[in-house]
Structures are given as C-alpha cells and as structure tokens.
Specification:
The protein is 31% helix and 26% strand. It is of the alpha+beta class and 261 residues long. A hairpin with a 7-residue loop joins strand 8 and strand 9. It is globular, with a radius of gyration of 23 Å.
C-alpha cells in the first residue's frame, strides 16, 4: 500500500469527499479536500487492495478532518504530480485559480504573472501563494490582501520578494526614509521589496542597494524611482526595472547580533 501525504499550514478545509472505484478487486481511492473557495488541494491515497479496505480510507478521512482544527491542509505531493498530469496549468493550476477567485484584482494579476513566468507556487493557501528560489529571488509571496502605498503614485502592495542581503547598520534609517515598502531583516540577513509588480520590486531593491552602498542618497533614490516608473509605464527603457543590477548573495548574510550576558 502506498500513501502519499503532504501537510502544509495556514489553510482551512470545510469538507472531505471520498472517491473510489467500488466493486473492483484492485482499486484506488482519492480524498479531495475542498475549502471555502472551492478545492484548494488534493490528497490521494493509491493502493492495490480489495474493496473491503475502502473502510480504512474512510478512517483516514476522519483523521484528516481532525487535523483541520490544527490549520493543516493536504496537497498533492511531487510524486503524485509526476505521471498524473498536474503541472502549473493542469488540475492543480485550475484549483489554484479557483482559490484566487475572491482575491483582489492586483493579487490575482501578480499571482498569474508569477505562475506564467516561474511556474506553479511551492505552496498555495487561501491567503497567499509562495514561491521558493525563482530567478534572482530567494522567495516570493503574493498575498490575498492589499496594503495602500502612495509612493511614487497611489497603488496597492500585494507581492513581496526577498534576497539575501546584509545592510550596514548605519544605512537602515536611510532605507526606511527612501521607501517604506523596502524591509530590512538584519537577523535573517534579508532585504525585501513589496509592490504590485515584479519590475517595481527590482527597481526598489536596485536603488536600495545604491543607498546601502553609499552610491546614492535616499532623497536622490526617491527621485530616480519616480523617473524609472514613468519610463517603464511609457514603454521606454527602464533598466532598473528589468532585473537586479547586482548579484544577490546566496546565504552568509545573517547577523545573529551579540549576547548582552
């Protein structure tokens, strides 16, 4: 008997449906888990077993229901995806899209861009979609809620993207003055930008790097940010919005600080 289970946090499931090939000597059973925004993930238990063992699958389903109170979700494991046709645009992709039906337009568009550019997310819940290392990014998260941000013009922030980066302690305040959506995590050794499109996050971190290295003041960085956004929207070359113009570190940037006692 082969059981394929993968648990992920922060999603809620409202009902469980057991599917079986009743009456067959060899059968497969699949448990489809559906959340408040339709199906969000799938658990499949495949086995070569007589129909009498279907009762055991029912007991598994009851166990799964018990996990709901712990905020667990079930999702298709990589082993199941291979050979079952579940790619970024397959069954799981369609399920992901249904989860996003109630998301704000900016969130849906950001998630759709990420799926088209980098493939299916590593994790999909009712509240966010998460990608691991893709392109130059260490991690990307698209949220199902918007945060109002009026620099350089009114828009909403929905997509946050991280890289490993150690910011000099005397430059943290300058980065805060430059752009409130650029977030420094000194302990983790990370810097992130949060906007509505990837190009704006490239821009934000390219200028943050120049501020952090002393190549540009925070006031000049704000001016340059506005200029690059205008050029990008006008379809003119805006190199700061295309990619990170410096090579992000691959670890080694964390700062655990020092003990006081």
């Amino acid at each position: 008997m082969q059981q394929l289970l993968q648990f992920r946090p922060n999603c809620f499931i409202s009902r469980v449906k057991l599917l079986s090939k009743a009456g067959q000597r060899s059968c497969g059973a699949g448990i489809a888990l559906e959340g408040p925004a339709n199906a969000v993930s799938v658990l499949e238990i495949s086995a070569l077993a007589p129909p009498v063992l279907i009762g055991r699958y029912m007991r598994v389903a009851k166990t799964v229901i018990g996990l709901i109170g712990l905020g667990a979700t079930i999702s298709c494991s990589p082993a199941m995806q291979s050979g079952s046709g579940m790619g970024s645009m397959g069954t799981m992709g369609r399920m992901d899209m249904r989860v996003m039906d109630s998301w704000p337009k900016a969130s849906r568009e950001a998630a759709e861009f990420m799926m088209k550019t980098y493939g299916a997310p590593a994790e999909m819940t009712a509240t966010k979609a998460t990608w691991g290392r893709t392109g130059q990014w260490k991690q990307t998260v698209v949220y199902n809620y918007e945060v109002q941000h009026d620099f350089p013009a009114p828009h909403t922030d929905v997509m946050q993207q991280w890289v490993d980066y150690r910011v000099p302690s005397d430059k943290v305040d300058d980065l805060s003055m430059y752009d409130g959506s650029v977030v420094v995590n000194r302990t983790n050794g990370e810097i992130s930008a949060r906007c509505d499109i990837e190009g704006a996050n490239f821009l934000a971190l390219n200028l943050a790097h120049e501020v952090a290295t002393g190549a540009r003041t925070w006031t000049d960085a704000r001016q340059k940010y506005g200029e690059q956004i205008k050029m990008m929207k006008a379809g003119q070359p805006a190199p700061y919005t295309v990619r990170l113009m410096w090579t992000p570190a691959m670890g080694g940037t964390a700062d655990p600080d020092r003990p006081l006692m």
